[in-house]
Amino acid sequence: MAFLALLGALTGRTDEDADVSSDKRPPTMTSPSVVLASDIPVAHTPAGGYGDSFPDPVLTTCTEPLVEGAPDLRGMWRAVGVERNGQSEPLDDKLARHIQRIEQCGNRLIVTAGGVVHDMRVDGTEENGVRDVAERDFTTPITVVATFENGVHVLRPVGIPVEVTRQLDGDQLIWTYLGRRITLDRIGGPNDPPPALD
């Protein structure tokens, strides 16, 4: 108590003003923890594909910013148009029902669509690219190298002379795949549930 009296004399406070039970210092600011893309396990297509219901998103807790040069393709996307050789075509039954979800964090990108979950690091290596199964049978192993090139997400399957690309055109996503140029509208965010399809 003598210490408190001395402190009061030095600061002009009385014993009644002194509150030893509470800390009057301002709270310390702490930065929120960052969840990196590498902190989240790699996702793969389940045996036989995921069926009619989308699996839960993978990167929901990731807070790492997108790498420089990465277009922000995040969202739930639905096909609305298709062209082949510059000519519009009607959407076939499969494309008319096509929805794809794109998640991104850091240099990681995950496309979930057509029963497959293709999780990749977009760094130009085979090791970190898509190492999963093909959509056509959910069995055939595939390795795909992924890059960002001038705002375009480019996929090059190893051993197959094909490129698959995704890029933004205004508010729409343009997906080129097997000779088709498919236009998709964003219908939600990457963590939103997909719409029910008739």
Provide an overview of this structure.
The chain has one domain (43-188): Beta Barrel (Lipocalin). Strands 1, 2, 3, 4, 5, 6, 7, 8, 9, 10 and 11 form an eleven-stranded antiparallel sheet that branches. The chain has helices spanning 2-11, 93-96; strands at 75-84, 87-89, 99-105, 108-113, 116-121, 130-133, 141-149, 152-157, 164-169, 172-177, 180-188. The relative contact order is 0.17. It contains two helices and eleven strands. By secondary structure, it is mostly beta strands.
Helical run tally: 2
> In which range does the helix fraction lie?
under 10%
Per CATH, the class reads: Mainly Beta
What is the CATH topology descriptor? Lipocalin
Integer average pLDDT:
87
The rounded distance between the terminal residues' Cα atoms is: 78 Å
CATH-derived architecture: Beta Barrel
What ranges have pLDDT less than 50 throughout 5 or more consecutive residues? 1-31
Helix/strand-derived category reads mainly beta
Largest sheet: 11 strands, antiparallel
Order of helices and strands: HEEHEEEEEEEEE
Total domains: 1
The H-level CATH homologous superfamily, spelled out, is Calycin beta-barrel core domain
Our Rg estimate from Cα atoms comes to 26 Å
Number of strands: 11
Write down the overall geometry. globular
